[in-house]
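Risk register update: the risk of archive-format incompatibility is retired. Evidence:
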Amino acid sequence: MWRDPKKMVPACAVAFLLSGIAPALASDDAPPPLDHGIQVSAPAGSSASVSVSHPAFDGSQARITITEDAVLAEVGERSIALHNTELPVELWRNQHSILLLDINFDGFLDVGVLDSVGYGGVNMYWRFSLADPKAGFAYAGIFSNPERDDVMGWLRSSARSGPIWSSDIYRIEDGEPVFHYSRERHGEYDRIIVPGMEQVAIISAIAPDPWDFEATDDPAFHQTALATVPRAYFHNDPNEESRRDAYLVDGDVGRVLNVTFNRDWLYVTFTHSQSGRTTEGWLRAEDMVFVQG
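Archived output:
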């Protein structure tokens, strides 16, 4: 089930709450929920502003201001136009909005400006700029209903078309969104589409969330990962030095039994469909993609 973004927060309250924001830390056994960000809006003909921490200088603040026809960011002595607000305000509750959300996981809030609205208000597209110590703010892309996955370090961009919800999974690397895979929800099953691959994984949509730790206690639960490189080598330990000769090939799917704390290694067991031989060990997470949960 997809959840609605957080309700709008008055700009004055948001300014107070965010003036000293710091990166959120998760405990080992209680990953935080998906983060929808904080929305700030200004009715037509008025303005709103909010101050957030910025990486340019220690203690520096960026002030984001919504005017009738633009969204501006002030960083030090610089004024940066994040967006010329061309969206007719009557299309979305007679107001302009920004969404404050750290989409590249650097501990600083980035700024999305409401760019367009589709499907009767279901799909909200936000034009995002990253808080950048050199450029002030740097354009990153447009994302629909963006959500952070604090466990995997992903940004999810989801949209509805007819009865189908689709989600594109990104990581922001060096200021650029890198697309990892897409997931479409078709009632009782989901389709996973990995770029550059002919294989399309079809999985049960009724499986529990892989990060729901109560659900994963159920022996019937399983989460799987699919190899996305020609050879994904097994390792005895989660490090490059312990690499073995055994490997998965592009498209092989194994069961994930464990994940390192920083999510860069997966412990996977794989049974060959023809020989019946089972192999298990650590695989680099960058060579795999989750296809269930």
